[in-house]
Amino acid sequence: MRCFPSEPTALCALIIVLVLALVIPINRSRAQGDMTLGQEVYEEFCGACHGYDGTALLPGAPSFSSGERLEQSDTVLLKSIRDGKGDLMPPWGDILSDEERIAILAYVRRIAAEAASRDN
Ligand code: HEC
Prior knowledge:
Layout: H1 10-45, H2 47-50, H3 74-83, H4 98-119
Bound molecules: heme C (HEC).
Heme C binds near residues 50, 60 and 104.
């Protein structure tokens, strides 16, 4: 059986379909896991100031539902989340893992995208 470089046979096509069927759900559940983690951690540590729905509760804190500050790159935002910013934004580097901070940023960007698609 030679899948490549010869033309794919029916058996090869079947194998490819089976492999994709196995791999795609695994990736999907992983992405979903990150989003769930991001939401959980956001609600626990960030919602009190930035608002549970992304509309800031603390004056001076950006509202992520309006996309505030999110025009900045992931690198800049992750640095602010890790090290803190100004007088009121605490540093989270010692409290949250890299994975949690990355998951939160993905969740924050999703809040903004969903709010923007509701407004249009
Ligand atoms: C005690 C209130 C408070 C909490 C809790 C808080 N923030 Fe903030 N955050 C702020 C304030 C205030 C600013 C604006 C800081 C400034 O620019 O001076 C800010 C700014 C930010 C920014 C923009 C930084 C930039 O570079 O412009 C991000 C991103 C952010 N916060 C994410 C988070 C995340 C993620 C959490 C939870 C892990 C969190 N914040 C928790 C008050 C808070």
